[in-house]
Amino acid sequence: MRSARSNIAFTVTLGAALLLGAVLMAVILLASGAPDAVAIGLVLAAIPVGPVIGCYLWLDRYEPEPRSLLLLGLGWGAFIATSAAIFLQAFDAFAFGPGEAVESVLVAPVTEEAAKGLFILLLLLYRRAELDGILDGIVYAGMVGVGFAFTENILYLSSAYIGEDNQPGGLDNAIALFVVRGIGSPFAHPFFTAFVGIGVGIAVGSRSRQVRILAPTLGYLLAVGSHAAWNGSLLIDGGSGAIAAYLLLMVPAFFVMVAFAVWSRRREGVLLATSLTDCAGRGFLDAREVPWLTRIPARKACRKHAARHGGPEALAAMKSYQVEAIELGFLHHRFLRGTAPARYEELGQAHVQRMFALRPQLVWPQVAGALR
């Protein structure tokens, strides 16, 4: 009961913070006094959002995270992290008056990565059961980064359309900037914050108190460092150094991150198979179900078979059963490693009970044996 109240308080608090952040960002955008520029910035900034989110949802297919939390992460990046970063940077400029180089290379990376990474840290503190490892950290970091980049792009593209610092404005200028930010580097902010997600993911799976503290800290420092390196390259020779930094630094680093994320996803498949096999040995599910739950193509085949032979109700039951079994598998994996959350037994029993209630409605393919 106390945990349920804590979850509700967490969701309500974040919802209120999102509302406040959205109001602040709306005021900032309206203060520009150029609704046409904001509209153009909004349209251009929205173009890369769907494809980038799609990439992270593809990574998240083994154990899909709650859509509510993913949307909270997206909103956190778009409203809370951006407004917090703007406030902190404005305060720093007012109090200390740093130059453009210090603002771009030091202040912006420190404040922005802290504002973005705080969401993942809050998940670690208050919704720890939803974080099963490194891949979850990357996915949540990606959603926060996408939201942050969306709002930041609106501001930059609107300014490019209006024109500032004796620079001409217009649609051509806004589109030129969109090519650089929206097409050339749409993964920049998710990439930077992914280091925080990796650090938190390592902390969740570790039994060492030192690792649980050092991993997120190191992840934050790497996020700041990569962000600072990218911003610094934009200042070299009037921005000409950005091309070299993009090709020699960002592209290789991005592909390394992608390879790491794909490896993490494949590793999760192996972990899930091992964990569910152990669950079957303890009587939580039928061992013949395990192959149908651990591979994504097999899950899709189960759903098609259920829809074809049992109709919409069987399809809904199969989807729900798969979700419960997968959640149970990853939870049980953490139990086997000795890093289970405090409410492990309560959560595990709830999954098993829901699976038991769904089992009579399931229509399994016959290929792997006579399940049903």
Automatic annotation (TrEMBL):
Q: Which domain of life is it from?
A: Bacteria
Official protein name in the record: Protease PrsW
Q: Which Pfam families match?
A: PrsW-protease
Q: Which Gene Ontology BP terms does the record give?
A: proteolysis
Key words, A-Z: Hydrolase, Membrane, Protease, Transmembrane, Transmembrane helix
Which organism does this sequence originate in? Nocardioides marmoriginsengisoli
Does this UniProt record's set of keywords contain tRNA processing? no
Q: Which GO terms describe its molecular function?
A: peptidase activity
InterPro entries hit by this protein: PrsW
The transmembrane residues are: 7-31, 37-59, 71-91, 106-126, 138-162, 187-206, 213-230, 242-263
